[in-house]
Amino acid sequence: MKLEKIVTMANRAVQWQLIGMVRSLRATGCQLPVLVIPHDRDPEYFELPEGCTWWRDQELHDWLMANGAHSRAGKYQCLMIENYHFVDCDVAFIENPEEALLPYQGFIATCNHWHDFDHTCTAESRMFFERKSTTWQRYSFNSGQFACDQILYSFEQLKNKLKEQGISGTALDGRFHEQAGMNLLVLVSGVQMQNLTLPPTCMESTWAGDYEHNQTVHYESFWKEPSRKPYLIHYAGCALNRNIAINELFFKHYSNEERQEVQNELDRYIANTLHHRTPRWRRLLSHLRSGYHQIYGK
């Protein structure tokens, strides 16, 4: 795979994460352009780091919003391009992704969602996976880190696929964020998929949480074999505001003055997220209702 661009998604709330991610990328020697998908329906555009540009397929965005999709469904536009690597802003690169992915082809996942697939499918989309293989979990992936060297859909093909029965309920339902939709759209595209944390590569985990929960062992002790060392760390759902060794891979790209500013911004972001988060029992009830309607059609 010959990467030509890095893609991410951002808004003002994660501007500080975007800066850290881009700095970590440049520190590996990667100078590829970074395309930034606006997160919000009506985004507030701000000045991006050097080498980054805003990127929105306005025709697709308008169509998705008109059909009730989640605002993060803007990631679907990645399926209409080739030779890219998508990462969320809360990623720290350790090695140059151009070099790390050069030996591979097709659609590349680098996460361990194969053993925790609850957020990668819905009751409706799970049936597509189960028809694919008895070991279907290996086809699930985190939509915050993936790469592909192929165009999977044209705009018209993507629209038509999204409208198909059995797919629209997952990929166009605004109650679900984009992860389940992305997983389903990649699966039904028929693209060859490989997850580098599975054999034959068996890369060590790219999720910071696997190291955060094992603080008795320093993270570098898991990376003694160069061929299995992850080339990025994703902090999805992790406590970046805690003094944990793995967090240094992200924060080392800030000055001391910036660290304090980022820490304050992170505290505000977490407080705001917790304040607006739907209670767990309401989320569970919503999922139960969705599954009931998908199964019984009532």
Please name the defining characteristics of this protein.
seven-stranded mixed sheet, Spore Coat Polysaccharide Biosynthesis Protein SpsA, Chain A, two-stranded antiparallel ribbon, single chain, 11% strand, alpha/beta, 35% helix, globular, 298 residues
Mind sketching the topology for me?
Elements: E1 5-10, H1 15-27, E2 34-38, E3 52-54, H2 58-66, E4 84-87, E5 91-93, H3 97-100, E6 107-109, H4 126-132, E7 145-148, H5 155-162, H6 168-171, H7 178-189, E8 193-195, H8 209-212, E9 232-234, H9 248-251, H10 256-276, H11 280-296
Parallel strand pairs: 1-2, 1-4, 2-3, 6-8
Antiparallel strand pairs: 4-7, 5-9, 6-7
What would a concise description of this structure say?
The chain is an alpha/beta fold and 298 residues long. It is 35% helix and 11% strand.
- By DSSP, the count of extended strands is 9
Residues in helix, %: 25-40%
CATH class division: Alpha Beta
User: Please, how many helices?
Assistant: 11
Which shape, going by the Cα principal axes? globular
Q: What CATH architecture label applies?
A: Alpha-Beta Complex
The strand order across the widest sheet is 3-2-1-4-7-6-8
**Main β-sheet description:** 7 strands, mixed
Structural class: alpha/beta
The CATH topology turns out to be Spore Coat Polysaccharide Biosynthesis Protein SpsA, Chain A
Whole-number average pLDDT?
Answer: 89
Unreliable sequence segments: 286-298
Q: Provide the succession of SSEs.
A: EHEEHEEHEHEHHHEHEHHH
Q: Span between N and C termini?
A: 46 Å
* Computed Rg: 19 Å
Strand content: 5-15%
Total individual domains: 1
